[in-house]
Amino acid sequence: MTGSFINPLSRGSGGLLGRTREIKAWAREVFRLPEDAVVSVNELACHVPGCPPKETVVLMMFRDQTVQVSIHKAILEVTKEDIGQALSTDVSSTR
Q1: H or E element at residue 37
Q2: What is the pLDDT of residue 75?
Q3: How far apart are CA 31 and CA 20, in angstroms?
Q4: What is the pLDDT of residues 18-35, one digit of tens each?
């Protein structure tokens, strides 16, 4: 085997769990969430025609609000810039 194997579920910063933690931290920073806010990050299969096969959904719950943003990338591909861009273009809020 010539390439190195990267375990996407490893606890290090390069794995799925590490990236999920980063996304949560970025969301807290970009959205200026209160300390007691709950942030959930999930990767879902996108079944909408023309949509990339994976999307990352960030759900933020605080006070009496729930805010959801969808980023049409897999968790491991999401960047801090994607979170900032989601803030300006794709924020849906429900009560």
Answers
A1: none
A2: 96
A3: 16
A4: 999 999 999 999 999 999
For the chain, how big is the Rg over CA atoms in Å? 14
Residue type, 6: I
User: Structure tokens of 82?
Assistant: 């994607």
Rounded to whole angstroms, the Cα distance separating 13 from 41 reads 16
Q: Which of 29, 37, 40 has its CA nearest to residue 83?
A: 29
What CA–CA distance (Å, rounded) separates 23 from 4?
25
Cα separation of 30 and 85, whole Å?
10
Rounded CA-CA distance 39/67 in Å is: 10
